[in-house]
Structures are given as C-alpha cells and as structure tokens.
Amino acid sequence: MICDPATEAAIFTTWGRPVLFPYLSQIPGAHRVQLIGADPAAPDPDWVSMMMGSVAERLPQARFDVIPHRGHLWPFEAPEAVLHWISTTLLA
C-alpha cells in the first residue's frame, strides 16, 4: 500500500470488522449509489466478493452489478472490460 502510516495501520487494525456496515442504511435515499461486485461463484472468491450482496441489500437505492467470471481485482485483470462497463453503464 502507498498511504501514510496511520491510514495503513487503521486498515490493518479494522480488517474484516464491520466498520461501515452498520451505517449503510443511514445513506440518504436521494443519493445514487452504484455497487460493483466480483462474481461470488468464480473460483476462490474472497470475502469482499462474498459480502457485496449483503451491502447492496442494506442500500435500497443502490444499483448492484455482479461482473460474471471476474474476481475482486477485475480492474487489473481486464482493464478494457472496466472501460466498457463504465461507458455502457455509468456514462450511458
């Protein structure tokens, strides 16, 4: 990671704990929220991929897209697919 030591320490201290999860329902409904999740059915899914559906359920105003056959780091795995998704979903 490239961040200041206090930020890095906070990331590792809170790793795996529901830091923001309890507050998701407090996001005002007027705000547009777009969530993108990795495919939890892909081989070896990580905890982020497995929890995104639960995050989306707590945000009724959210649009949630699962990217088929991709893992958590799909922007690095297939940057051209990310650009296509942005242009066809967010900029459409």
Task: Report a brief summary of the structure.
The chain has a domain at 34-92.
Explain what this protein looks like in three dimensions.
This protein has about 90 residues and is α+β, with helices and mostly antiparallel strands. The chain has a domain at about 35-90. Helix content is about 40%, strand content about 15%. It has helices at about 5-15, 45-55, 75, 80-90, and strands spanning about 35-40, 60-65. It is globular, with a radius of gyration of 15 Å. The model has no long low-confidence stretch (mean pLDDT about 85).
Major β-sheet profile = 2 strands, parallel
Shape, principal axes of CA atoms: globular
Supply the number of helical segments. 4
Kindly report the average pLDDT value.
83
**Sequence of strands across the biggest β-sheet:** 1-2
Instruction: Tell me the radius of gyration.
Output: 15 Å
Strand content: 5-15%
Task: Tell me the series of helices and strands, N- to C-terminal.
Answer: HEHEHH
Helix content: 40-55%
Low-confidence stretches: none
How many E-type strands?
2
Structural class: alpha+beta
Report, as a whole number of angstroms, the end-to-end distance. Answer: 33 Å
